[in-house]
Specification:
alpha/beta; four-stranded antiparallel β-sheet; 16 helices; 33% helix; 14% strand; globular
Length: 514
């Protein structure tokens, strides 16, 4: 009998070991906004970022990671779907770009209710899925105040005081509408959401960042789902406008002002804002750099919670910005907008201090996550990316692609490790106006321009054109090894390279038959 009991105990222990081994990894995605090399200590920027620096030391740094479109919506769309943003079939996008017309990809891409994304697939395979923070991914029509009544939002004045309970009740109602809508796209838990940017809350008092409010909800999700595999998409509003380096919009703001109105109490989930400013000064940084440490503390709070829950070895953590900003390359296809840091940490799986120096992109994240979780994509899941699993686990340092396609407004690009070709092509109706000598509206009271900006957003276009000398050139070729800032357009100097890259572009465009 005693032998039988021991055998039963041994078999039970084996079963538990098997269950532990069979558990699929958790995935935590931390996506920041409008960040470039200046904002990270590990990239030589004038910023104090100890937690992110530690992620580099303890994990993998992808040094040539790119986004395939360089404003919020299309970049996030590609990250969560694994598809080029030009493939979007969302209602808003298709209204602007009916089949047969040239797409002008910018902040008009949105997740489709009838197509796959990573959250939907993971949810159907036993994962608990969470969404916290900035969306800019659904219902673009909701962002305009004039549309609120039509869609069921409750209205309040631009100067309304969220401390008024009636005002906050309206804000809370609107926030819940965003949460309920996002949940439809494959998320079990949705909270602390900003539907678009802070300005689109249409309230002066709420036009401030509240990192702790979002971090608090992220920690709640992880703690509530610690016993089963989970996927968390955490998207902070930092470092997007309103300028967080101006502390009245960030560290000096009221920590009870949130996307759901005025909070009963400020969350206490990471070092205090005063402590952030103190440590930033002690690190020798000026006060306008404190926002970078503030965000870094939020990353640290998430990493600490995983450690506290004993989930470090069970969790792949990803950190990346949605796109770059330096030299106003946001909304362009230059590398200062496309190429951003990507960090991955997975204790026991990813070799500490490792790098992957070949080209990778946001469209690669979905196939990578499906690969590392052992989930086969549905047969009708259209994917443009490739898995980076072997690269992140140190099994291969080989390139996963020779060329990368990207798109933004009226521009398209193909990039290799050495060269980038950018083509600017206007639709026929616009081309006729240019040829006829018509001018186009500029930003605010600036003089009209001879060619329209790449994007409909003239604010982004104005600053991008002012900082990038070849912005309007219809054909652009850059040697990325010799000209990292892409100042010298050598299209006419290298006819063979130009011709070859144009052929690569032609083949890339054939992926979009409609």
């Amino acid at each position: 009998m005693r032998l039988k009991n021991r055998l039963s105990l041994f078999l039970a222990m084996l079963a538990l070991v098997g269950l532990a081994e069979a558990r699929k990894p958790n995935v935590v995605v931390i996506m920041s906004d409008d960040q470039d090399w200046r904002h990270f200590g590990f990239m030589g920027g004038d910023a104090y970022t100890p937690n992110l620096d530690r992620m580099v030391d303890q994990g993998l740094y992808l040094t040539d990671y790119n986004v395939t479109a360089t404003v919020c919506s299309p970049s996030r769309y590609s990250f969560l779907t694994g598809r080029y943003s030009g493939r979007c079939t969302g209602e808003y996008f298709m209204r602007l770009h009916p089949e047969g017309s040239q797409t002008q990809v910018e902040n008009n891409c949105e997740l489709e209710p009838d197509r796959w994304n990573i959250a939907k697939v993971l949810q159907q395979n036993g994962y608990k899925t969470g969404f916290v923070g900035k969306s800019h991914l659904v219902k673009h029509d909701w962002r305009l105040r004039k549309s609120w009544k039509k869609f069921g939002f409750q209205e309040y004045a631009q100067d309304a005081d969220p401390k008024d309970p009636e005002v906050t009740a309206k804000m809370k109602h609107n926030h819940q509408m965003w949460c309920d809508e996002i949940a439809k796209y494959g998320f079990d838990y949705v909270d602390a959401v900003y539907g678009v940017n802070l300005l689109e809350q249409h309230n002066t008092a709420l036009n401030v960042h509240n990192l702790e409010w979002t971090v608090d909800k992220a920690l709640t999700f992880m703690e509530s789902n610690q016993d089963e595999p989970f996927f968390l998409y955490f998207a902070t509003t930092l470092q997007h406008g309103p300028s967080p380096w101006v502390n009245k919009f960030s560290l000096d703001a009221d920590p009870r002002m949130s996307g759901e109105g005025y909070l009963a109490e400020a969350p206490d989930v990471q070092p205090s804002r005063e402590d952030v400013k103190r440590r930033n000064r002690e690190a020798g940084k000026t006060d306008d750099k404190a926002c970078f440490l503030w965000l870094d503390d939020g990353v640290g709070a998430i990493l600490n919670k995983l450690k506290e829950l004993g989930l470090e070895k069970d969790t792949l953590v990803i950190f990346t910005p949605d796109h770059g900003y330096f030299r106003y390359c946001k909304s362009t296809l230059y590398d200062y907008g496309m190429r951003v840091p990507m960090l991955m940490q997975w204790n026991g799986k990813i070799k500490p201090g490792s790098t992957y120096d070949e080209m990778a992109a946001n469209i690669d994240i979905v196939p990578t996550l499906l690969d590392v979780t052992g989930i086969k994509p549905p047969a009708d899941y259209e994917l443009d990316g490739v898995s980076l699993k072997n690269a992140i686990l140190g099994k291969s340092s080989k390139p996963v692609r020779k060329y990368l396609f990207s798109e933004m407004g009226h521009a398209r690009a193909v990039k290799s490790k050495e060269w980038k070709y950018i083509a600017v092509r206007y639709p026929e109706a616009v081309r006729k106006k240019i040829d006829a000598g018509q001018t186009f509206p500029n930003w605010k009271d600036k003089p009209p321009i001879e060619q329209p900006y790449m994007t409909r957003n003239s604010h982004l276009g104005f600053y991008a054109a002012s900082q990038n000398p070849n912005y309007f050139d219809v054909d652009q070729l850059y040697n990325l090894k010799k000209d990292k800032s892409e100042d010298d357009n050598v299209f006419d100097q290298y006819p063979e390279v130009s011709a070859a890259m144009r052929q690569v572009m032609k083949k890339a465009l054939e992926q979009f038959p409609n």
